[in-house]
Amino acid sequence: FSADNGSRSNLSVPVMPADPAEPPASGLPEAVQSQDAEACATFAGVYKDSGGGIVNVTQSNCDVHALNVAQRWDVNGKAVGQQVFLWQHIGTLQEGMVMWSHKAIWAPVEFDGVRTEAMASERS
Predict the structure, then answer these.
(1) CB contact at 8 A, 71 and 56
(2) 112 by DSSP, 3-state: which?
(3) How far is 111 from 3, CA to CA, in rounded Å?
(4) Measuring CA to CA, how many Å separate 68 from each of 22, 52, 81, 122?
(5) Are strands 105-108 and 54-60 parallel, antiparallel or unpaired?
(6) C-alpha triplet 54, 58, 63: angle, nearest 5°
(7) Second label for 72, Cα 20 to 30 Å away, from 3, 12, 17, 121?
(8) Rounded distance, CA 19 to CA 75, Å?
(9) Contact between 41 and 81 (Cβ < 8 Å)
(10) DSSP 1-31
(11) How many helices and strands, by DSSP H and E, does the chain display?
């Protein structure tokens, strides 16, 4: 997840609280915020962010938490189907990668030749 919106300004990205008791990240469509734990893809895993750093994603049902220490952001969001909603961005799971509406890409990181959970669960 990259904070780069295409401009060259030095914008800082606010660090969102990681408290799972907090409501989903602001900017989510109201229909997404109210989704029950319907079928949603598993996004949990470790990804290399095209905007820099490593993203650690955890997931409980369809509630998603993502952390990128290098970019200094920490956010809660929601998965619906093959999509994840973080801030005002939409990521779509495609071939194990998360392709973002703002053109960033999260690629799964391999450990000893084993891809993270998101790639394995998408093919199941």
Answers:
(1) no
(2) coil
(3) 26
(4) 19, 9, 23, 23
(5) unpaired
(6) 130
(7) 121
(8) 9
(9) yes
(10) -----S--S-PPPPPPP--TTSPSPTT--HH
(11) 2, 10
What torsion do the CA atoms of 90, 34, 54, 60 make, to the nearest 10 degrees?
A: -140
Residue type, 111: F
Burial of 33 (0-12, 13-18, 19+ CB in 10 A): middle
Three-state SS for 81? strand
Calculate mean pLDDT across residues 87-101: 95
Q: What is the pLDDT of residues 4-49, one digit of tens each?
A: 444 443 333 334 444 444 444 445 555 555 555 458 999 999 999 9
Name the nearest CA neighbour of 53 among 109, 118, 124. Answer: 109
Which one-letter DSSP state was computed for residue 113?
Answer: T
Other Cβ atoms within 10 Å of 7 Cβ, number: 7
